[in-house]
Amino acid sequence: MNIKILFSSLFLCFFCFAKMQAQEVLTIEDAMKIALENNFEIKIAKNNSRINETNVTIGNAGMLPVATASVTDNNSIQNSKQTRQDGTSTSLDNAKNNSLNYGVSIGWTIFDGMKMFARHDQLKELQKLGDSELKRIILAKIGQVNSAYYDLFQQQQQLAALDTTIVISNQRLTLAKNRFTIGKASKLEVLNAQVDLNSDQVALLRQKESYANAKILLNQYLARDPKIDFKVTDQVTVDSKLVLADLIDLAQKQNPALETQIINKRVAELQLKQVKADRYPVVRLTSGYNFAESESSLGFTSATSARGLNYGFNATLNIFDGFNQHRNEKIAKLQIENSQIAIEQQNMILNSQLSIAFQTYLTNLELIDLEEDNEAIARQNLQITLDKFKIGTITTIDFRTAQLNYVNAKVRYSNAQYEAKLSEIALKELAGNINF
């Protein structure tokens, strides 16, 4: 009986292992690649970035001439009566009158106080702002994918630990039944073993549910069918060589939030240039070619027509606008000042976040070593306890305690790896340096 149950347990473990081997192994590199291609928020951010890029043209800045074609056709039917100076009069019912005008006109602003050039530079900065926002969203989503991926890793490790404890609990139940059969144990020992096995099976089912839900969540981040089955790597490598000073230096150059504030200041400076340009005259060239004709059933002239070129220029200068120019310049300068304050604030927030995250990172690195040692000790203790339990030199309570200690140590070790990896990801995200 003992051999049959042990063989069945080993066969079940082998079957589960073979099933996992048949599943797709999703690497973190593949997950990030899929997210970059499929994630909806990244797609929207990419399109917004393309919109900003498309807007950077000299035409949008107002540097090019504008040509307009127009056609106007007016017709009327009227009962008309005319009285001349000599007292004579004439009249006509249903008199037809029509006029037709068409042509092309061109207008070109050749000087506006350099406002158009400042506007063009501002469009370039807005493109950079869109690129920075795209980078921020990509970093956030890639960080999210990494977190979900390594959460699956640690849940996968917990499943393995619970699978192991199920096998051990089955062995314990078998031993208890054998000892009860030969009269060396009470029925209570069998019942306790059965209760503990049932508890382990419940924990395994709960963990399988959590693992399946975590897979669905990762598939959601990857914007693919939630039913796609896969497994993740069974190993995690934590970069233990991060240096706080290097991270701060990278963040000053690459952090999207800080980069956004710096660009916002540049946009505000260019806005001030555009406001100041309103102090200068605006010179605009105009030209066009038009054709006009009209017909009248009553009057001295029955038809007229004209065609030809017109050209000229106009210039305007704001002399007084109720001090609005002064007010607008003052507001633009305050916007620049606010932008500088926002940069300083973001710098302080960024340095604080990096310092806190780095301290957590160092703690988690130490916890990995400590929990690894604890897991090795708990595994050795369980093996010794199992050997003693087989020969009946320890109680079932001591055996169960050793069994739970091993499971908990294994779970804590995988959690320590997971938390350390999260700390690494958070630091690299703040530094704008996640590799993808």
TrEMBL record:
Keywords, comma-separated and alphabetical: Cell outer membrane, Membrane, Signal, Transmembrane, Transmembrane beta strand, Transport
One GO cellular component term: cell outer membrane
Entry annotated with the keyword Glycoprotein: no
Record Pfam families: OEP
Main subcellular location: membrane
InterPro entries named among the record's database cross-references: OMP_efflux, TolC-like
Lineage: Bacteria, Pseudomonadati, Bacteroidota, Flavobacteriia, Flavobacteriales
Subcellular location: Cell outer membrane
Annotated signal sequence range: 1-22
Family statement: Belongs to the outer membrane factor (OMF) (TC 1.B.17) family.
Name used for this protein in its record: TolC family protein
UniProt-recorded Gene Ontology molecular function terms: efflux transmembrane transporter activity; porin activity
